[in-house]
Amino acid sequence: MTFFEKIITTISYLKQPAKRRMIQIAASLNGQTGIEVGGPSAFFSFKSAFPIYLYAKKIDGVNFSNHTLWEGKIEEGNLYTYYKNKKGFQFIGEAAELKAVKDASYDFVLSCHSLEHVANPIKALKDWSRVMKSKARLVLVLPDKEFTFDNKRPITSLTHLIEDYNNNTTEEDSTHFEEVIALHDFKHDAFVQTKEDLIKRTRLNIKNRAVHHHVFDLELVKELLIYCGFEMIHQQTYPPFHLVSVAQKQ
Among 224, 220, 211, which Cα is nearest to 144's? Predict the structure, then answer.
């Protein structure tokens, strides 16, 4: 971290109480190595709510494809540029199956607005736990449905997520497609404006991964993480539409 970045982060800490706990946790990971699923993310960058990019020694990344709606074209290799000249290894692989990553490789795992796009969240979280060292931290950011196009949809139950895991649900799952289309709030979606476009995008989900399979609130996230063997450290909402949870591998 440069002197300028340190000064700005300190000012942000003092002037914005809602950021303080997140900045403290980011600073506690100083000099550590992590992996981000579905990044890079502005939420973890300089002047953000959780500026872990400033503190980490190195962060690798994993994305499901060589081309995504959010990152465009990407390639596997030492090409994961998450902040200025900071680079890690870019993996190409499913979020729920980090096959190329060895056990107990990382001090922390980051995921920002990614897990809702995964059809089998428990499978993903268990595999993320596998690549984490003992007592490693998970920083999980999910959309607050009240301020997104999911605001008309019901919160998913933990029972449903467990059923998905027990049934080994894959990324080709279309269980929630009808609900997604019927209850979509177009006022909160900058990418699709019509129902026809939404139907087309949803049907192509295996390629674009735009669907939010499940809908979360902080209570569900807490239940889910505890079920997957994590200990909760911190939870909060953060504007404009973030649900922030930090947990530790037990």
Answer: 220
Three-state secondary structure along 142-156?
Answer: EECHHHCCCCCCCCC
Question: pLDDT tens, 92-127?
Answer: 999 999 999 999 999 999 999 999 999 999 999 999
Which domains, ranges and CATH numbers included, belong to the chain?
3-143+214-249 (3.40.50.150)
Taking Cα atoms as reference points, which of 211, 29, 98 lies closest to residue 90?
98
Q: Which of 110, 99, 106, 141 is nearest to 32 (CA)?
A: 106
Strand intervals (E) in the chain: 33-37, 58-63, 67-68, 72-73, 77-83, 86-92, 106-112, 132-143, 230-238, 242-249
Amino acid at 48: S
Q: What parts of the chain have a pLDDT lower than 70?
A: none
Angle formed at CA 92 by CA 124 and CA 224, multiple of 5 degrees: 10
Distance CA 52, CA 36 (A): 11
CA–CA distance from 59 to each of 40, 106, 171, 207 (Å)?
A: 10, 9, 25, 26
Rounded Cα distance between 40 and 70, Å, is 9
